[in-house]
């Protein structure tokens, strides 16, 4: 109890000690970060942020193989980029971030994801492409030929750089042309159909698209490939020209071919239409040439293309007097040249028009001093624009000027147009106190021509309160005595300084919330730290306090320093032992090695907390040693269970004293209980050194247990049954031909009967002598054993059975459902006899599914012929779902064996594993249920029946859906009425069993009497092929209102409802039916007699039949237990009340008569028992008198006072405490004297005597109730047997103890 109170006292101290420091933790979002790929080296990447409930100073860090990318400021958590990022080299990686306070470090992994995709996939050949193909009827281009190949390149790595080609559109778009071409993954365009110049088209244009999976940040760039057909007509196409191409430059040559035979007319070429007239012309040779200067920038809204309609006209009219001409459109794409340099504009995208009015070279912005890195300059709207295309329009951005080191520009590379931001790069250089205005130059340089433009940016700095109060040190270590007085000064020398002046330089001191704020306080003006509550300064509760001292200036800027306050210790705590010590070891082999766990809450490293361990004196201390410093308890030698007092049950209790070395010395005791477990340390011993037995060959015997060969006998010296129980086993050559059966004789003896099994016989020719080894061992698997040699001599009989070749019985595999035919295996047999006639016989066929016997299902699948060949008989009947393993049990028979000898070999098993295919329909599981419908109780959508089904197939083939195919109602007169939509079924499943719940759609007609036959279909849902199904029919019995029974109760309706479950259970027990309670109502007060309420119910058997009121009454009266329980629950009338009155009166009369007879029997039994007890008491008094007289004669001394039987008071002055009478009332007239011997009890109550002087009680010795009392010795013979002892002077106390004189039974 003392230890319990001590634990309760120390628990709060331990909780406070454990809660003295809590580990810091990162914020929840410190798991991943996304960084832009163009983040410059030295720029701020992100911050590490953590929280510490103790407000301890935190130190941040980063480690891992990829940590070299970053630099971490330990005291702030700022992370800057130390090495440039490259998405194409490593687009994501992990680093380990850590945070620690002075006591604990916490780490976690962070995912770093590099920003956008910066490479867009492009066709390597981006110009307009021209090709020609021949008509399909010519053999030069058959179907499947490669028309052209394109290649798109994406510089991104990994999945983002994988290019996928597709044909988006074919012009002309007809049914024939939709699938005329296809494109392969490598960019090759394949002709998939035949071409026809006359019947289809002479011109095809294909629009291609190349896509990559990483194109979220840049759109997919489509490329169009026009394809023209060259036939007996005109071939024209697309061409390309450079911007600014000189006049007269040849662009494209077109040619028209006249299909007429003979001499062709000359052809005149002309440009009949153009989207930009005058830019091109065509000569008589069909060459299209540039007619003037080209400007691509004028064609931006027309996709940089010029459309020309070229017409070819014959010189003469045709035979119809008409001009023979043909026209086609030619597309000329104008390519870009680098003829512009980037310019600066004061506008915001996308509203910029890039007019000369918007162009500007001077810009102004504003920013706060010491703004964080990558903070943009406010009020700066700058856009750089280069109208050139592609690389010609790509420009680089950089900073110059006197203050360029403090800022950076973003982006550093752009194409076409881009919004420019000037960002703070080095916060320390943006200092209002150093300069109020800073100037930088933004330089935009063309990446190809290196032409550049410069814009001047004037940045005005906004002043802020940027100086904080600072302490000289970040940590102050202070010391204060434990339990110091309130108001004691801890320190008055800590002061902060602030470079600001005026109100911003005024400093106020405060302690931030945290552990210890309630114990210490600070003066807000002077900063002096004092003790706030000295009574709570307990070093054992908390030895060190960490306070945060904050200094705040007038601008609400603050800084803090850490105060580490140590409390000085005194010795005021006794050692504390952790846990309890209960050790179990085995005798002889087990070793005790346990360390007593103790600690002292006083200051570590001092005598106050140094612990010493010692053993207090005890009877078994000499068997153990205890290290005084470590508390390690060991045994000095093997422990012997037999050496321990048996009354201890093998338990040794050692008391360990744990004391400290302080002044004064404080100590604690703890008990160590060691239970030595008994082991089996004695080996069995045989009664002979060896045994020799003889047995005939081929003589298994007629006994069902086999032929007995001989008996061995052994004895174990251990005393407990668990350790001296002997079992026998056989080993040695041929041991498998024999069996040995043990028989326990008791007291450690056992016999082993060596037998031949009934189905085993010996062969002299094979082995004439068997040298066996019989082992006698205890059940302990770790125990040793004793062996004896047993020699079995076989008497010769002329016999040799054949044997099966084990190799031929190796298992085979056969597929189900007719997959295999013919011979599948051959069983081989041999016989040592020279003249043999062997045949293989099929003994048995075992059919199993998942290890369970399925009967004779597979008996006809396979056959075995006499030469051992195994054939498939019924290939299509083989079914894996019915049987997955067929075991053919075969044997070899020697037809030439002499009569009287074994002609058969041992049975062998050929395992045939059946391989599975999908071929099973669903099947319904049997239901041991009867479904009954009481129409007035059944509600819509309430289950009235259920079915369960399974499908041995797996996956979708095993999923089952239920449906109701048909509902028929069969009335009691046999008429059948079909119903539609009266029931519906819901589906559910658990494991591989599917359940269908049948529920009515609407309320059922209560006038119908008969059976609903519901046909349910289970259908599987295979992924491929037709579904399989199974049907079953359920019978739903209806119970009409004629079976409605009424029970009346003497209690109100509310109490009947509260007792509904108990009433239901009693009725169910009495009737063995299912009780359906319909209604519970109060009876009209005018009609009441004894009943106040009634309960209407149906009593239905599983077969659908129900009880009538008369049958119910008979069954309840036959079950008295249920009847009494119902009467207690208030049942007064079963049916009508009038019929129950007379029965109740007769029952009450019978009960009263029965109670009277029982009372009479009790009185007779008590009278008889009293008389018997009285006679027994008189008999005991007479025995007492005889014993007294015998003692007088033996001792030769007359007692001076009588002894009162059954007590330990034996003089005339004291009354009998058992009877509360004086001794004269007992009628013991023979008692006339007493002496000192009378003061000693002469009965068995000595250990249970009553001491009237001390008025105290002692507990009697417990005797188990099942232990029979010892018989009383005959008094006179006992006294006379001790006469010699009395004569020799050795008589002490009473001469005998007679339990028969114990008067407690009076």
Description:
This protein is mostly beta strands and 1306 residues long. Helix content is 10%, strand content 37%. It contains nine helices and 83 strands. Strands 29-36-35-31-33 form a five-stranded mixed sheet, with no helix packed on it. A five-stranded mixed sheet has the order 62-70-69-65-66, with no helix packed on it. It has a five-stranded mixed sheet with strand order 72-79-78-74-75, with no helix packed on it. Strand 51 (651-660) and strand 52 form a beta hairpin. Helix 4 (1060-1071) packs antiparallel against helix 6. The two termini are 43 Å apart. The relative contact order is 0.03. The model is unreliable at 1-19, 116-140, 214-243, 1137-1142, 1194-1270 and 1283-1306 (pLDDT under 50). Residues 1251-1264 have a biased composition (Basic and acidic residues). Residues 1-20 form the signal peptide. It is a single-pass type I membrane protein.
């Amino acid at each position: 109890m003392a230890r319990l109170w001590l634990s309760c006292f120390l628990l709060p101290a331990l909780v406070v000690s454990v809660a003295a420091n809590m580990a810091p933790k990162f914020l929840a979002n410190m798991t991943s970060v996304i960084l832009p790929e163009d983040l410059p080296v030295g720029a701020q990447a992100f911050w590490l942020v953590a929280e510490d409930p103790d407000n301890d100073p935190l130190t941040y860090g980063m480690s891992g193989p990829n940590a070299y990318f970053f630099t971490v400021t330990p005291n702030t958590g700022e992370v800057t980029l130390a090495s440039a990022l490259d998405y194409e080299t490593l687009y994501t990686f992990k680093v380990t971030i850590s945070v620690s306070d002075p006591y604990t470090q916490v780490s976690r992994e962070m995912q770093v994801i590099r920003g956008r995709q910066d490479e867009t996939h492009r066709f390597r050949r981006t110009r307009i492409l021209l090709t020609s193909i021949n008509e399909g009827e010519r053999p030069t281009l058959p179907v499947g030929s490669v028309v052209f190949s394109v290649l798109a390149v994406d510089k991104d790595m990994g999945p983002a750089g994988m290019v996928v080609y597709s044909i988006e559109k074919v012009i002309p778009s007809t049914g024939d042309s939709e699938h005329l071409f296809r494109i392969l993954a490598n960019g090759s365009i394949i002709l998939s159909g035949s071409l026809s110049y006359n019947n289809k088209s002479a011109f095809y244009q294909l629009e291609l698209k190349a896509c990559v999976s990483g194109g979220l940040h840049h759109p997919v760039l489509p490329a169009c490939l026009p394809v023209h057909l060259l036939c007996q007509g005109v071939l024209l196409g697309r061409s390309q020209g450079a911007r600014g191409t000189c006049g007269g430059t040849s662009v494209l040559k077109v040619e028209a071919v006249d299909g007429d035979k003979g001499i062709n007319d000359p052809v005149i070429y002309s440009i009949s239409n153009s989207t930009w007239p005058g830019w091109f012309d065509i000569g008589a040779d069909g060459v299209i040439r540039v007619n003037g200067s080209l400007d691509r920038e004028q064609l931006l809204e027309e996709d940089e293309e010029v459309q020309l309609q070229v017409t070819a006209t014959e010189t003469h009219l045709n035979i119809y007097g008409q001009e023979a001409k043909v026209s086609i459109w030619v597309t000329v794409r104008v390519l870009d040249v680098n003829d512009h340099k980037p310019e600066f504009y004061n506008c915001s995208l996308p509203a910029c028009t890039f007019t000369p009015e918007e162009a500007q070279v001077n810009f102004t912005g504003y920013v706060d001093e010491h703004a964080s890195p990558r903070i943009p300059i406010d009020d700066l709207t700058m856009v750089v624009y280069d109208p050139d295309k592609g690389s010609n329009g790509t420009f680089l951005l950089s900073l110059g000027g006197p203050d360029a080191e403090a800022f950076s520009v973003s982006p550093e590379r752009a194409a076409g147009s881009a919004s420019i931001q000037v960002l703070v790069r080095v916060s320390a250089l943006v200092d209002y106190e150093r300069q109020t205005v800073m100037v930088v130059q933004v330089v935009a340089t063309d990446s190809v021509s290196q032409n550049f433009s410069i814009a001047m940016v004037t940045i005005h700095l906004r002043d802020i309160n940027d100086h904080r109060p600072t302490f000289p040190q970040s940590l102050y270590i202070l010391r204060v005595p434990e339990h110091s007085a309130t108001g004691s000064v801890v320190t008055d020398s800590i002061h902060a300084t602030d470079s600001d002046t005026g109100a911003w330089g005024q400093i106020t001191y405060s302690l931030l919330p945290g552990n210890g704020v309630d114990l210490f306080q600070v003066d807000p003006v002077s900063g002096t730290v004092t003790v706030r509550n000295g009574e709570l300064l307990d070093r054992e509760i908390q030895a060190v306090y960490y306070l945060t001292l904050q200094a705040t200036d007038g601008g609400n800027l603050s800084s803090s320093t850490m105060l580490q306050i140590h409390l000085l210790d005194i010795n005021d705590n006794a050692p504390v032992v952790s846990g309890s010590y209960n050790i179990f070891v085995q005798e002889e082999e087990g070793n005790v090695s346990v360390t007593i766990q103790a600690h002292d809450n006083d200051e570590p490293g001092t005598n106050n907390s140094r612990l010493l361990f010692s053993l207090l004196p005890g009877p078994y201390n000499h068997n153990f040693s205890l290290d005084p410093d470590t508390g390690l308890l060991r045994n000095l030698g093997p422990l012997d269970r037999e050496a321990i007092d048996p009354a201890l049950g093998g338990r040794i209790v050692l008391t360990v004293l744990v004391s400290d070395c302080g002044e004064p010395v404080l100590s604690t005791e703890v008990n160590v209980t060691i239970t030595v477990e008994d082991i089996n340390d004695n080996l069995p011993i045989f009664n002979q050194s060896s045994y020799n037995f003889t047995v005939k060959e081929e003589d298994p015997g007629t006994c069902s247990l086999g032929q007995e060969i001989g008996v061995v006998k052994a004895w174990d010296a251990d005393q407990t049954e668990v350790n001296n129980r002997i079992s026998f086993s056989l080993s040695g050559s041929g041991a498998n031909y024999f069996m040995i059966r043990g028989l326990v004789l008791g007291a450690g003896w056992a016999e082993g009967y060596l037998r031949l099994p009934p189905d085993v016989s010996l062969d002299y020719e094979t082995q004439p002598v068997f040298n066996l080894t019989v082992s006698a061992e205890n059940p302990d698997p770790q125990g040793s054993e004793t062996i004896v040699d047993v020699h079995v001599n076989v008497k010769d009989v002329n016999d040799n059975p054949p044997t099966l070749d084990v190799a031929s019985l190796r298992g085979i595999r056969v597929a189900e459902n007719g997959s295999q035919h013919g011979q599948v295996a051959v069983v081989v047999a041999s016989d040592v006899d020279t003249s043999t006639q062997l045949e293989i016989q099929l003994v048995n066929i075992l059919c199993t599914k998942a290890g369970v016997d399925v009967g004779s299902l597979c008996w006809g699948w396979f056959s075995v012929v006499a030469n051992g060949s195994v054939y498939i008989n019924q290939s299509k009947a083989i079914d894996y779902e019915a049987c997955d393993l067929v075991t053919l049990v075969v044997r070899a028979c020697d037809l030439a064996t002499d009569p009287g000898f074994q002609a058969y070999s041992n049975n062998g098993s050929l395992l045939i594993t059946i391989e599975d295919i999908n071929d099973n329909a669903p099947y319904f599981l049997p239901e041991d249920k009867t479904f009954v419908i009481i129409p007035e109780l059944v509600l819509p959508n309430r289950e009235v029946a259920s079915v369960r089904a399974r499908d041995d197939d797996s996956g979708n083939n095993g999923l089952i859906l239920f449906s109701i195919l048909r509902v028929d109602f069969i009335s009691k007169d046999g008429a059948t009425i079909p119903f539609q939509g009266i029931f519906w079924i819901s589906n559910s499943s658990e494991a591989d069993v599917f359940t269908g719940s049948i529920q009515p759609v609407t309320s059922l007609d209560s006038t119908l009497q008969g059976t609903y036959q519901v046909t349910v279909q289970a259908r599987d849902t295979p992924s491929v092929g037709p579904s399989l199904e199974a049907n079953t029919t359920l019978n739903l019995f209806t119970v009409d209102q004629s079976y409605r029974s009424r029970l009346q109760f003497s209690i109100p309706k509310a109490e009947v409802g509260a007792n509904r479950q108990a009433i239901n259970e009693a009725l169910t027990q009495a009737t063995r039916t299912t009780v359906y309670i319909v209604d519970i109502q109060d009876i009209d007060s005018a009609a009441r007699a004894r009943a106040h309420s009634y309960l209407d119910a149906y009593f239905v058997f599983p077969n659908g039949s129900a009880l009538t009121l008369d049958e119910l009454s008979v069954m309840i009266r036959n079950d008295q237990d249920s009847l009494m329980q119902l009467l207690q629950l208030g049942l007064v009338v079963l049916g009508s009340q009038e019929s129950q009155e007379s029965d109740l009166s007769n029952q009450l009369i019978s009960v009263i008569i029965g109670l009277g007879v029982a009372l009479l029997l009790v009185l007779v039994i008590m009278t008889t028992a009293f008389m018997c007890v009285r006679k027994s008491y008189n008999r005991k008094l007479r025995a007492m008198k005889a014993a007294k007289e015998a003692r007088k004669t033996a001792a030769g001394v007359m007692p001076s006072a009588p002894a009162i039987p059954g007590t330990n008071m034996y003089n005339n002055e004291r009354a009998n405490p058992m009877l509360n009478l004086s001794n004269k009332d007992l009628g013991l007239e023979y008692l006339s004297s007493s002496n000192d011997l009378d003061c000693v009890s002469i009965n068995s109550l000595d250990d249970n005597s009553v001491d009237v002087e001390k008025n105290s009680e002692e507990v009697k010795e417990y005797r188990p109730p099942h232990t029979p009392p010892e018989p009383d010795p005959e008094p006179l013979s006992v006294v006379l047997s001790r006469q010699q002892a009395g004569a020799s002077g050795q008589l002490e106390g009473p001469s005998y103890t007679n339990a028969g004189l114990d008067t407690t039974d009076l």
